[in-house]
Write a structure and sequence with these properties.
This protein has ten helices and 19 strands. It is an alpha+beta fold and 422 residues long. The strands form six sheets. It has a six-stranded mixed beta sheet with strand order 1-2-6-3-7-18, with helices on both faces. GO terms for molecular function: hydrolase activity; metal ion binding.
Length: 422
């Protein structure tokens, strides 16, 4: 086994330049969700299939989730199988990465290169999607390629999953696969989601907080700002409500759990605005969005109920009848919701295997913990399939000048290969 591992690691090292080139080719293709104004992942999936078409995978399957907003009306999900030493009867290891990326954001902040014109500089590959999730996607590919080249059948069948829609909720990705193709998943599968971690590669995520994105939409009556009594300023109502909600949620849901970083629930107002386009217009509409990351001990239904109860109190405070209509109106829209499942047990096989690989091949002790969420792992935990999130990342995801460190890509590929062999 030790000789096999050393040979595999050398083979992965030999792919360094090819790995960089593959990452560059993938970064060049924007794969932005229609939810964010993009065409989806179709072109990137086609490129990936072109790259691996001659690789000796035992089976490659493609599952297209229908989405009329996306290019060719689909959001592709690809599964590539490399069987273990017992063929299809081998125990199975999933490595899941996602094809989609977030939008570039403020282009003026990209000072190294343009988002989809990747460059290599100082041992890093710069570009949108380089670290999130291109680095791990390429690492998983070449972990398997090394085994193929050496003719090694691993202890575990490796299923590489390249899925859509991670960045905007997974409705057309892993969630769609689990709903429409439950036969793909087995209770004794091991699952690695290389989409979170730290710079040392010593953090293994086994738990996530619940996620709730709420949009609060307030309606009043637009009026000239010099005559506020003739209308109802939705902006004033919204900021009053938002401040009251912020204070209330932090006070009520104040428990701490040191498994997580940060150890408490978070409630962040992140977006807001109204159609007022002049200083002298008191707007009749205003919206505020909250990003809530809630410890699993709390129920999101209760958070939503509290938000609604507070909305009723604020409506009563500002209650006014204008032209036969009672104002303000306050509507709470759920943009995204993910109720946290039970954590992956600390003593589960995938946790112990990953800790062993990091200890033996990096000489480091990895700790387990929780994050604000969310990743694919939550969907597997909901099926009671143990899953971990791990990678070696500088955490530049979603930022301008996002990059993937080449060394991390190569070294993580070695750990991925080791998980299939140990």
């Amino acid at each position: 086994m030790q000789m096999n591992m050393e040979a595999v690691f050398r083979e992965i090292e030999s792919f360094r330049d090819e790995m960089v080139n593959t990452l560059i080719e993938l970064i060049k293709i924007p794969a932005i969700s229609p939810d964010s104004g993009g065409e989806g992942e179709y072109d990137k999936a086609q490129k990936l299939l072109e790259i691996i078409k001659d690789w000796p995978f035992d089976k490659i399957e493609r599952y297209d989730a229908p989405d009329p907003r996306a290019k060719n009306g689909v959001r592709p999900n690809i599964l590539a199988y490399y069987y273990g030493e017992q063929g299809e009867e081998s125990p199975r290891l999933w490595i899941l990465t996602h094809l989609d990326v977030v939008p570039p954001g403020d282009l003026s902040k990209w000072t190294v290169t343009k988002p989809f014109e990747p460059v290599v500089k100082d041992g890093k590959v710069y570009g949108r999607g380089s670290e999130d999730n291109g680095q791990s996607l390429v690492a998983s590919l070449y972990a398997v390629r090394a085994l193929m080249n050496l003719g090694i059948r691993p202890k575990r069948t490796i299923i590489l999953a390249f899925v859509s829609d991670e960045e905007t909720g997974s409705k057309y990705g892993i969630e769609w696969l689990m709903k429409n193709h439950p036969e793909l998943f087995k209770k004794d599968d091991l699952v690695l989601v290389p989409d979170g971690g730290n710079e040392e590669g010593t953090f293994i995520e086994i738990a996530e907080k619940s996620i709730l994105w709420m949009k609060i939409k307030v309606k009043g009556k637009q009026v000239h700002a010099s005559m506020p009594g003739l209308g109802l300023n939705a902006h004033r109502v919204a900021i009053d409500y938002a401040k009251a909600l912020d204070d209330f949620l932090h006070e009520k849901y104040n428990a701490r759990d040191e498994l997580f970083d940060p150890p408490e629930s978070t409630f962040e107002p992140t977006m807001g605005g109204n159609p007022s386009d002049a200083p002298n217009i008191a707007p009749g509409e205003h919206e505020v969005v909250f990003d809530c990351r809630v410890l699993p001990q709390y129920k999101l239904d209760e958070v939503l109920s509290d938000a609604q109860d507070l909305a009723e109190k604020v409506k009563e405070k500002y209650k006014k009848e204008i032209e036969g209509k009672v104002l303000p109106e306050i509507e709470i829209e759920v943009l995204q919701r993910l109720d946290a499942p039970a954590p992956t047990p600390k003593d589960s096989e995938i946790v112990k295997l990953l800790q062993r690989a990091i200890r033996e091949f990096r000489g480091k002790e990895a700790k387990v913990g929780g994050i604000g969420g969310g990743t694919f792992a939550a969907y597997f935990r909901r099926l009671r399939i143990p899953a971990v999130v791990w990678a070696t990342l500088d955490e530049t995801a979603h930022q301008p000048n996002e990059y993937a460190k080449i060394e991390n890509m190569v070294e993580d590929a070695k750990i991925m290969a080791a998980l299939a062999l140990l």
